[in-house]
Amino acid sequence: MTRTWWKEAVIYQIYPRSFRDSDGDGIGDLKGIEEKLDYLKELGVDVIWLGPVYKSPNDDYGYDVSDYYEIMDEFGSMEDWTSLCSEIHCRGMKIMMDIILNHTSDEHAWFQASKTPGNISFRDYYYWREGDSEPNNWESFFGGSAWKYDEEARAYYLHLFSVKQPDLNWSHDALRKEMYSMMRFWLDKGVDAFRLDAVNLLVKPGEWQDGEPAEPDHCLAPCGHLIANGEGIHDIFQEMNNEVFSRYPMFTVAEMAGVSAEEGLLYTDSARKELDSIIYFEHMDVDNGPGGRWETIPFSLQAFKQIITRWQIKLQGKGWIGLYLNNHDQPRVVSRWGNDIRYRVESAKMFATCIHMLQGSPYIYQGEEIGMTNIRFDSIQDYRDVETLNYYRIECEIKGRSHEEVMRDIYLKSRDNARTPMQWDDSNYAGFGTVQPWIDVNPNYKEVNVEKALADPGSVLHYYRELIRLRKRHEVIVYGDYSPLLEEHSDVFAYRRTLNDETLFVITNFSEKELIVDLGEPASEPSLLLANYPPEEEPLTALRLRPFEARIYLARNNIS
Ligand code: ISL
Question: Which numeric CATH code is attached to 5-103+173-467?
Fold first, then answer.
């Protein structure tokens, strides 16, 4: 397998609005991020993924771009960005920018110009359809129709996300050229990587046929399966690679909802010169019911393990994966599938172990390294996410469901669970800033914060540092072949990684049960590399696992 720097990297995701407010406006900013670079360097991460910082009216908090060439006012200036980029580089780290290709803000100059009927230059930058009703029954990811009528344009426009995020028409040559030069602009400024947002949605079927609303995909809006991975999407990525990526020492990671491992291989097989790696959703949707994301069913470790194993084996040696359980769109996994009260530290460490020892690039989402948890605001007025607010409005005000019932769904799955301010210390507002932030701080910040974690050798933070150190020390973690162990076990996820004469054994108990497991006889006496409980000397054939216990062993295959 080709060895590259980015396959060996650990990536840290920053949601800039909630990371650190340096100028006292209650909103995170670029200077605030710069203040915390030494913290990130000491954590051991290699790449910093900056959520969107372009000018935006913030309907979707930066994912609605009104100018790709300007920095959002609240985050600072282009000089601040240049300084941050340089400070990241001089610490030997790299910067990944979030690139939103599928849509712009409706306040972007292109969209405003495209409203003018007959404006042939810009009309085809978006999907405009004349007529007296929506062209089909497609629904937005954020609820309601995916079509909005505009009086000025006297036509409907497509928006797969919020009504203020009109979809760009990637079949239009001039639009593609605009986007390629925008990407080169940022790469010329020193960007080392792109996270490509919702990028397998770029191609829309020409005939706009109705979808079957009864078949909402778990992670795609109803009818989303008609759109994801559209015909011609690979041609676009091969053109994008040729026009942009191949000309720079950079790497790409594509965020793709609704994609299978087979499709993931087609996107990331290096021989196809499209994309370098993929952040998929299948494993994060195992607790979504038939109605989609807001309908939560019990977590199934069996389903989870089967998906992980399928992706590990399908892409092994050819493609590459972004490994994650947390991000700005997901509730925090320690609350979602762990136990954030009695076993917050143990379960946070267990999830990290499970993810960091797989083949791929591990992503750490801000706050997961200190075991930050979900939030529960009593009032919908305290929530900020457009998807959450739309859900509440549709479910309560249109469908008539009770506040309590809908808030239960929101506590489980709202994206705001991951967007409360980073908890730096136990001072006011958790050290995020000096004024009331744009969204409330989690009340547990006096217990859960960076300062307390740094002072506690047994903290989640120190455990993450150890996991990252192991990755730097043992090539088997990056390049070793994956094979599952205890596949039938419903509470334990165990697997093996092998490279040359080394075998790694990773055992994670996803339950609160005490269990005995038999991993079989290793080739040689394994040594314990890391555990989230005080180590016990047992053979791999009779391991006693405590609630959410995780262990990593290393065995040498041939005794030389
Ligand atoms: O979080 C989801 C909806 O509940 C995902 O389906 C997500 O919206 C989708 O995968 C695309 O996410 C990306 O694009 C969105 C933005 O809101 C998300 O924050 C971003 O990660 C539109 O730009």
Answer: 3.20.20.80
